[in-house]
Amino acid sequence: MPETSISAAAAQSREPRPSADDILTIGAISIVAGILTNILHEGVGHGLTALVTGARSGVLTTVAWSSVFDSRLVEAGGTLVNLAAGLLFWVVLGRSKHASMTTRYFLLITCAFNLFTGTGYFFFSGVTNFGDWATVISGLDPHWLWRVLLVAGGACSYYGAVRVVGIALVRYVDIPRDQPGRLRKLTLVPYLSAILLSTIAAVLNPLGIQLVWQSALPATAGGQSGLLWLQYYIPRGMEAKAASGRLQRDYTWIAVAAVLAVVYVAVLGRGVTLHR
Prior knowledge:
By secondary structure, the protein is mainly alpha-helical. The protein has ten helices and three strands. Helix content is 68%, strand content 4%. The radius of gyration is 21 Å and the shape is globular.
């Protein structure tokens, strides 16, 4: 081998390689995004809507809102708030090109959680005839047609959400398509973090352990499953606009996530009574 080639190879080997994305920071950002998404769904979409439209009080947990007062608007509220929040976070992400990578990644994961929760609920309720949208269409005839519309609309909108999140991951967070291992890490960790957090919190809920299997796990494991395969649906030719940095360890995000997770599980997991 020529001496110049050996020297070049030796010099290249001495160059510092970029560190891998920090898994603790990814998990912390995902936990904060997951908590925010759930509070928007249960607290704002169901709870606040119920209190504003007629309920005098109710119990808010991580898996459900429970009150004597109910309506189609209250049942639909969780999904509608998630969809609105997902679109809002997507717009903010698109305008945050100069923000830090941790901020852009947080905006992306929060957008993904909200869009997947919102669109996934249509499909889930249509298939199982259970959950928020099963209640929304209850009593509407022909019932089978409404379920078919939920399934079809849910499948199409969920696929659209997957495409939107995948494109944003490359275009706005600057993660190259040709780094499948990195893409997998940045999407798998949030998926597993969301399942772990929702399961732990749901076990403590006062409304019954069956809600863990009927609501918490399906809503999270199924609803957020788009994170597992979105990298395969990023359009060809879509490239990152700039060389992406790495998610360095951020103790602020880790500390905030730890505190919020404890409060979320210990307080909201057990249930909080809200009054108008």
